[in-house]
Amino acid sequence: MWIRHGILLAFSAGFVAGENGLNGWLRYASLPEAQRQQATSIPSVIVALNSTATSPVYVAAQELQAGIEGVLGVKLQVLHEPEITASSLSVLVGTVAAYTSKHGARNISSLIADGYWLSVKAGSVIILGQNERGALYGAFEYLSRISQGNFADVDVVSNPDAPIRWVNQWDNLEGTIERGYAGPSIFFSDGLVVKNLTRVSQYARLLASLGINAIIPNNVNANPNLLTAENIEGLGRIADTMRPYGVQVGISLNFASPERLGGLKTFDPLDIMVVKWWTEKTEALYKRVPDLAGYLVKANSEGQPGPLTYNRTLADAANLFARAVQPFGGIVMFRAFVYNHLADWTVWEADRANAAVEFFKHLDGKFLDNVVVQIKYGPIDFQVREPASPLFANIPLTNTAIELQITQEYLGQQSHLVYIAPLWKEILDFDLKVDGKPSAVRDIVAGRRFNKKLGGYAGVVNVGTNTSWLGSHLAMSNLYAYGRLAWNPKQDAQALLQDWIRLSFGHDRSVLDTITKISMESWPAYENYSGNLGIQTLTDILYTHFGPGPASQDNNGWGQWTRATNTHIGMDRTMSNGTGNAGQYPPEVAKAYDNIETTPDNLVLWFHHVPYTHRLHSGKTVIQHFYDAHYKGAATAQTFAPAWESLRGKVDAQRFDEVLFRLRYQAGHSIVWRDSICSFYHNLSGIPDEAKRVGNHPWRIQAEAMALTGFKPTGVTPPEAASNFTAVATVKNGTGEAVATLNFPDGTYDIAIAYYDIVGGRAHYGAFINEDPLLEWYGDLEDRLGHAFSEKLDGHSATRVTITNVGIKKGDVLKIIGLANGNETASLDYVAFSRRELLIRKSLRTYSLFITT
Ligand code: GCW
Hints:
Blueprint: E1 3-4, H1 33-36, E2 41-42, E3 45-48, H2 56-72, E4 77-80, E5 90-95, H3 96-103, E6 116-121, E7 124-129, H4 132-147, E8 154-158, E9 164-171, E10 188-189, E11 192-193, H5 198-208, E12 214-218, H6 229-242, E13 248-249, E14 251-253, H7 257-260, H8 272-288, E15 294-297, H9 314-325, E16 331-335, H10 355-360, E17 371-376, E18 399-405, H11 421-429, H12 441-445, E19 456-460, H13 476-487, H14 493-505, H15 509-530, E20 568-569, H16 587-594, H17 604-607, E21 610-611, H18 622-645, H19 653-685, E22 700-702, E23 707-709, E24 712-714, E25 727-729, E26 735-741, E27 747-756, E28 764-769, E29 772-778, H20 781-784, E30 798-808, E31 813-819, E32 827-828, E33 830-835, H21 836-841, H22 844-850
Parallel strand pairs: 3-4, 3-5, 5-7, 9-12, 9-19, 12-13, 14-15, 15-16, 16-17, 17-18, 18-19
Antiparallel strand pairs: 1-2, 6-7, 6-8, 10-11, 20-21, 22-33, 23-26, 24-25, 25-32, 26-31, 27-30, 27-33, 28-29, 28-31
Helix pairs in contact: 2-4, 8-9, 13-14, 14-15, 15-18, 18-19, 18-22
The structure holds 4-O-methyl-beta-D-glucopyranuronic acid.
């Protein structure tokens, strides 16, 4: 019955035709011959210890069949007991209980809920889950191994580090997704659950392969209408669709639902009618969805209703729901993201970073056992760099979960490559030293450190209908790493990335090396060009959170303050002189953050207010570090697209082109970031860049300096989002022409044209040298990138197109024509020239200094 690799069906190793990303890392692409050779023997039949089509064990068998066929080219038969008994030649999958009743006990008592035992011995495979879900996880683990060419014998027990491994979607009932960058919702449309749930099933499959065990499909800014009878039925259909994959469904609640949907006069959590209303709603929900995972609640935050309106505590609110779901085994995830977004910014101490501890510390011990406080990783809001939230250390009597964000709200919105797992790891591994004892964040949320039964992970994903799920193929490494870390946070970020690369893009060494390199460089690069030293992502926090807008942080109630003046920058969070935030950490950590000498450079501006001339541990001044880091980060981002281009022919065409487009976009937008931030602080501080790059662009032709017809000089908002603080634009429906005679030495150049691509139309552009066409393009990024788009000329819409290898002679005439379209005016900021010959000869280090264009 053994099938030797020599007689496997002949099939060619290569790409699955027409890949669009839909299968994520579950492609089951055929293994290249060299790796297939390792499979000296594989089983000949799959035995599943459950024959109910909707059971995870049944699904596991189907998955094993599809996976083995895809990877090895043999279609194994699936048999269900009692049709046959297991033989040593099978892949057997089932629960420990089912196995024991048939085949006698196995000594795998160390399994906990959702865990599995995987045994591969000379090609004979046994996968036993502690529960059905665990069996499915074990099957996915086996398939991940063989997909990566790993046929080694193994005998392993794998248990999840924490029981809660959830994802959150911020989908609105209308079908939009808050902070989603991959198209509309796969769950909702027009106020209802969609009819066709195929994508929901495919999503459940991806989630299950990572060990994710529950999902909240609707936005934490919740719509009460989710609780209508029709939508409860819809939720039932979602739950039925995801259940075979072991993914339970929970929901976000709108705290004011009893009033807004139920017609009551109040939503006071202690009012008897309110309690009755929630109890009955909960019963109705569990009637349709008996395994509802529970509720997620955002209360008294960013304008959402909550118990504070009635002078009730957040614990009163959480416990109301906890009591309602308790008889059904449900849990309540109560978000710690509570703060006053209308804070008085003139009050130095009104520090948003303090809010979570202020709101929750005194409630420790008051939450019921099935409440879990869900805490964002840092004290503010998913910034590119934050210290771990001090709340993790402050509520030892309370169950906690960490909230991470897969969707890249503040990290480039999937239009920039940013592999986030290294950031998450820094937080998860951070030792808060509670009571002087080792207290890594991962041990706290797993429940280990404070002996809690519940705890774990919530990841905000926001997949959409785009077949790439997240809008960017490379961004899927973040979802993959999130799930794997929630299962075992000790895993290495790069190792997880490489598993994902092999599963998603195959086995070519250069593909592995290249994606590893650009991904591992991506978070440091993004931090360098978007906001370093702990100053946060310096984006426009009052608008789309995408492009640069450093002034928007300050002078408003949102509390993402930098306190930048023309001499100083940074939040003073010290105990002696500042907001006291450092003092919210346990003593050893507090002491380190309170003292500028012991605060790491990458958090210095998070905790300290210093002059721009303050010297860092690195020896640089703060301002020079800003300039250098922004140049370095943008220079690194310039290398991503060429690195990817070297993989042409080694990655299937559609994904290759889509990724290349984004990496080229990122190259241009990283320069927008670099220049905006450098020019903002240069202007504010008046301190020159030692390397003379900032504000000095000899290889640029500013649009306003060209001979203009139809284009008119205009400021943009913020001003630093235009080179030399000025751009040019046509009127609505207008036409513009900009002409310049080139005065650069003869040579071959890359030419970058900086302009603004806003929503509302697709402006049409042409560039010419001596009337010869150079490039024609459209302002159509809104069709091609899913990030939040802007209606104005600003740091979000600022972008560049680059034409490589153009031969130029002194005296050549450059002409750019722009035709406005719809509400989109045609616009231009500058044209930059880089000498190709020089670029090629420079090493990356000097390249970063050289790129001043
Ligand atoms: O980061 C902010 C986002 C909001 C989000 C909020 C939250 C869903 O800008 O869009 O609302 O956090 O986490 O509740």
